[in-house]
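Quick one: structure for this chain?
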Amino acid sequence: MKKPYNPADDGAQMSFDGRMSYSDYLGLDAILNAHHTFSDAHDESLFIIQHQTSELWMKLAIHEVSAARKLLLHGETRPAFKMLARVARIFEQLNNAWDVLRTMTPSDYTTFRDALGQSSGFQSWQYRLIEFMVGNRNIAMLKPHEHRPDILEKLAAELAQPSLYDVALGALNNAGFTLPEEVLSRDLSQAYQPHEAVQAAWVKVYQDPTTHWELYELAEKLVDFEDYFRRWRFNHVTTVERVIGFKRGTGGTSGTAYLKRMLSVEIFPELWHLRTEL
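Got it. Here's what it folds into:
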């Protein structure tokens, strides 16, 4: 009889007494033990794990956007491209996750929906931070986090610094496309408002990409991210409508109606509108 394969024969480490193991390195005990259901419903595990893993991906997105923004501020455009491309792929992963959640039917969801209380994805501070970081800013969205001073401080601190798009516009200005002072010195805590001069500058970049290649590639990296981000929003709307129809959300929002309004939000408006002029 053939002897069973033993990985140790090939040098695989089999003893971990006092040594770093896979579980140790990843902190798997804390991660796996963070999953607690509040009902006996079978599909509640799917619902919780879907949202927990999404929060982990968002944590990585925050890490990458923060690093990319810092590089852009220091004029290191090319190293930032890889990070921005990675953020787009992160949102591709988040998009794929909706396909799993959509296997849950309305009947499945009703078996544990009451257990959610007033909790809702609307209250995700990491999602809100990502929106603030890339440029979609709304001071009113600080309110749901006032019960957590530590989180409120993080979100408020983000509103005090330039968004990713602000930094991109700074790079555009520094490259010789002089932008109006009202754009460069705007109130950072407020939502960005499209400006004709900004669109005109981006149009020039797109009309001569060979000359302005780094700005051209930066613009396309931003569009690529927003493309995946829009798909994520659309998939969110579709999933919610498929599962709860037009009921109000557990967090008190209008549910599908609220999410559909968010589909019209543009993060990098001029980068989309300029295409009509080319």
